[in-house]
Design goal:
By secondary structure, this protein is an alpha+beta fold. 19% of the residues lie in helices and 28% in strands. The protein contains three helices and seven strands, in the order H-E-E-H-H-E-E-E-E-E. The chain has helices at 14-27, 70-76, 91-106, and strands spanning 50-54, 65-68, 110-119, 123-134, 143-156, 165-167, 172-176. The protein is globular and about 45 Å long.
Length: 190
């Protein structure tokens, strides 16, 4: 087991690219699919690794996890549905995550990153996280569809894991052009 997070020049996996293609199929000619366009039966291939979460509102900082797929649940060691995603991050990264979430919902754009996921079992593993926005539902609520997949071997955990899991700062991070461009970052987070 390594002492710190490994760093490699990661590339998006075929599964991440297929997930984006799936999202594009939900658009059906619209700039972004409405929240009700996603039905689990349409994304069976991704369900085990799928996470859905609320997008932060204009004044709120909540990114409540609504669905946490079976394999993601097994990997994390618990079902994180109901938790605020932001609470899983170190305090110094929370405002940036909320700003990125707002940007993803408003622009819209997607996000791809590789981040260490620290587990209560005493080790961490890098995961590929791909997130794409869904438009508002009838109540105006926006959401994200996210794919979480492990990508590398394990290493020693260095973060406190108050909820059984903690997400460290991204080793690689980029926004995905979904039709409206890629934002200038971090300038827009300030």
């Amino acid at each position: 087991m390594q002492a710190g997070a490994p760093f490699t020049n990661y590339q998006r996996t075929d599964e991440s690219l297929a997930f984006e293609a799936f999202w594009r199929s939900l658009c059906d000619g619209r700039p972004l699919p409405p929240r009700n366009a996603f039905r689990p039966s349409l994304g069976v291939r991704f369900l085990r690794d799928l996470i859905t979460m609320e997008a932060p509102g204009p004044r709120g900082d909540g990114m409540r996890i609504r669905f946490f797929g079976e394999r993601a649940h097994e990997f994390a060691g618990r079902n994180l549905a109901g938790l605020n995603y932001v609470d899983l991050l170190p305090a110094q990264h929370r405002n940036g995550a909320v700003a990125a979430g707002r940007l993803m919902a408003e622009m819209p754009c997607g996000l791809w990153q590789i981040s260490p996921l620290h587990l209560a079992r005493g080790y961490a593993q890098c995961v590929e996280f791909t997130a794409v926005p869904l438009g508002p539902d009838d109540n105006g609520m926006r959401a994200f569809l996210c794919l979480l997949r492990p990508v590398e071997g394990i290493f020693l955990s260095t973060l406190p894991v108050n909820y059984g899991v903690a997400i460290d700062t991204a080793l690689q991070f980029r926004f995905l052009h979904l039709g409206a461009g890629e934002p200038a970052w971090p300038a827009l987070a300030a």
